[in-house]
Specification:
The structure is a homodimer. By secondary structure, chain A is of the alpha+beta class. Chain A has helices at about 1-10, 35-40, 50, 115-130, 160-165, 240, 250-255, and strands at about 10-15, 30, 45-50, 60, 70-75, 75-80, 85-90, 95, 100, 105-110, 135-150, 170-185, 195-205, 210-225, 230-235. The interface of A and B includes residues 47 and 243 of A. Strand 15 (about 230-235) of chain A pairs antiparallel with strand 15 of chain B.
């Protein structure tokens, strides 16, 4: 099985290792808040999309009051509402949690058929290799099956994310052209961002999308950027100050991501 | 006891809360590598002090091959060797781990007598309050007792930090004027930096210093900056790529810090 996956991945370009550390704003992740804060219900928007866009043209996240799933791609930002509707994001909307960057891929690979999310992760693992770095990931392809979710806007007092995701809306798409985008984060940023893969999806016609739950793929192109620069801005708001952010929420995170 | 400590701390200035998030380079921590990498023996210098100084005038860290303890203060950077000697840092030396910033204090407090490190931390806790942020800390004062350590330069293959600190040099100073500098980091950055207080010391005559192990203080002035912006640069070197950074090294860290 492993060999099949390996051969399905054809590396077209290899990484430009030596230029990594000198990269300035390209491939520097700009992150708003922390995943632990989101898990604890810190959903008040901190930074407008107008400001966020100054730090990247690519990324994922959510919206003020947890109003859906965010996808940023080629400078266009989209909001997947819990109704399933996909809207362009207004610059004045704020985000309580997002990670963006100016995406400059350093590795390109062709993907053959991928059966499920596990197999996709194995394929990506074989490209990524050095798991102590961050990676930005983009997969354009023909997807035979995609399952996503989105979350409904919340009102105060906010409940923890694991409570909200119990009421998440789930969407299934078949034979759809689109793009998977997101990140690999190293394990040691547990508490700060999602360790491992965190991927969102948007269709080519920009009418379907969400936080990725399941996937199968006929063929696609993977583009990956290794990230050595990470930047984080912490919210000044009361609810962030008072949240219990120091505990290990790994299990909550696992629940909330699925 | 707690009341005594509280009354010993007189807040002179309060934080300018609303200006925090908009701060650009002032009070943005710039960190090289991660504490887990240092614990695992990733001691090869990544960034020169010439470059490091472009990101701050204040900070702590170490040197290529773990050759001593670093203190940066008012734009001057010092190296406390394991011989006890304190040297100005040459711009061409590299660091494998450091955190610096342009220090703009937002809180100033007068400290009365402080018996020991625990009591100092309690005093600082009463100023810091919101423990979900980073804080840069500077204490100028007359210290009745200071105990520091430094570590000897290592050769390859590098041993983990807990092995090296078994051979650390320990220094004791009495009735010395000097400065304690360092950081408070929130618990959720465990693996990235040192959660809690991490402080170094340097004497006014720049002849004594090191990583702070014990302290008592007659009187002093505390200056504190709350940090909402955090930036990290990961090394591109082989030993960082291959290090096992994903485990919980909290106990090793505790051992190495003492």
């Amino acid at each position: 099985m492993k060999n099949t996956i390996r051969t399905a991945v054809i590396l077209v370009c290899l990484i430009f290792g030596s230029t990594l550390a000198s990269a300035q704003s390209a491939n520097e992740i700009y992150q708003v808040s922390t995943i632990n804060a989101l898990l604890q219900g810190v959903y008040d928007g901190e930074i407008t999309f107008k400001e966020l866009k100054q730090h990247g043209d690519f990324g994922i996240g959510t919206f003020n009051a947890l109003d859906g799933e965010m996808i940023g791609l080629g400078g266009q930002f989209y909001q997947v509402k819990s109704s399933g509707q996909v809207l362009p994001v207004n610059n004045s909307i704020k985000t309580p949690f997002a990670a963006v960057l100016y995406f400059k891929p350093q590795r390109v690979a062709e993907l053959g058929a991928v059966q499920d999310y596990d197999q996709l992760q194995e394929s990506l693992n074989s490209i990524i290799n050095d798991q102590n770095y961050f990676y930005a990931i983009r997969i354009d392809g023909l997807f035979t099956y995609v399952k996503t979710r989105s979350v409904p806007a919340q009102s105060k007092p906010y409940r923890p994310l694991t409570e909200v995701t119990k009421t998440q809306a789930v969407f299934e798409f078949e034979n759809v052209r689109g793009t998977v985008i997101g990140f690999w984060c190293p394990k040691y940023v547990n508490g700060v961002n999602v360790p491992g893969y965190h991927l969102h999806f948007i269709s080519d016609d920009r009418k379907q999308g969400g936080h990725l739950l399941a996937i199968s793929l006929l063929s696609g192109k993977v583009q990956i950027a290794r990230i050595t620069n990470f930047r984080m801005v912490l919210p000044g708001a009361e609810d962030f100050r008072n949240a219990a952010l120091g505990k290990d929420y790994s299990k909550d995170l696992q629940t909330a991501e699925q």
